[in-house]
Amino acid sequence: MGRVIAIVNQKGGVGKSTTAVNLAAYMALAGRKVLLVDGDPQGNATTGVGVNKRELEGCVYHVLMNERPMEAVIRATEIAGLDLAPATIDLAGAEIELVSALSREFRLKRALEPVRSVYDYILVDSPPSLGLLTLNGLAAADEALVPIQCEFYALEGLSQLMRTIEMVREHLNPDLVVGGVVLTMYDARTNLSQQVVDDVRSFFAGKVRVFETVIPRNVRLTEAPSHGKPIALYDPGCRGAEAYRELAEEVMRYEPAGARQRAAGADS
Ligand SMILES: Nc1ncnc2c1ncn2[C@@H]1O[C@H](COP(=O)(O)OP(=O)(O)OP(=O)(O)O)[C@@H](O)[C@H]1O
């Protein structure tokens, strides 16, 4: 059964899509079968793996609206073993159209059920909000992975995010765990970046895992999406690539207890 990881943070521009794309790419390059679900109407994860949004006939919007099965929108990517469930701006409509729909928070979870056994990992990118799209990701997930940008307001909003995850656990998905926090856009030249790393580690100490791997600010990571390539294909030797490869190894090595129990239950 594929381990479902929702990449969430209601703050914009913290590196959710960059993390989703590059983690998924390195997991696939390590021989795993991976599905990247673009749950953000901006479609940055879709563009980031080289899929042209204008050529798409169906996307995650149609899946959430029960118009198409997940299998019908999944596409292969340039990396063997990495598939994509794409998003276009249409997905923005789902946030509104689902408000009065039945089982509105469980649409993604249900849609993933027939394909879960095909994949080792299913990574869900989320929009910068705590609306229905993010809730669908969290309700479907075994674990949440939270990217945090090394900048001045890094800790702002984190308590609210943790409360939301707790609420999802109580009402929608009792098995959900916070798989980990990943620090992004670290700039070794500034004291501020190191200060944020220290603050975030002490904020979560003893409660939530903060991954050892810290993602550096690296211009090659910014350039890669405009070429429609994960960093592993665009510039595999750069520091950003090295960091995401290490992060993928760390995530694959570490499996939170909740996720393990749930997978075992499903297999038995
Ligand atoms: N480590 C990094 N170094 C340099 N640039 C980065 C890094 N990570 C992300 N970026 C750039 O920062 C911007 C925001 O990143 P990204 O789109 O991954 O964030 P996001 O949290 O998904 O954003 P949104 O909330 O809008 O969906 C993008 O232009 C991306 O290329």
From TrEMBL:
One Pfam family of this chain: AAA_31
Coiled-coil segments: none
Residues annotated as transmembrane: none
UniProt cross-references to InterPro entries, sorted A to Z: AAA_dom (IPR025669), DNA_Partitioning_ATPase (IPR050678), P-loop_NTPase (IPR027417)
Protein name: AAA family ATPase
UniProt xrefs under Gene3D superfamilies: P-loop containing nucleotide triphosphate hydrolases (3.40.50.300)
Residue ranges occupied by any AAA domain in the UniProt entry: 3-177
SUPFAM superfamilies: P-loop containing nucleoside triphosphate hydrolases
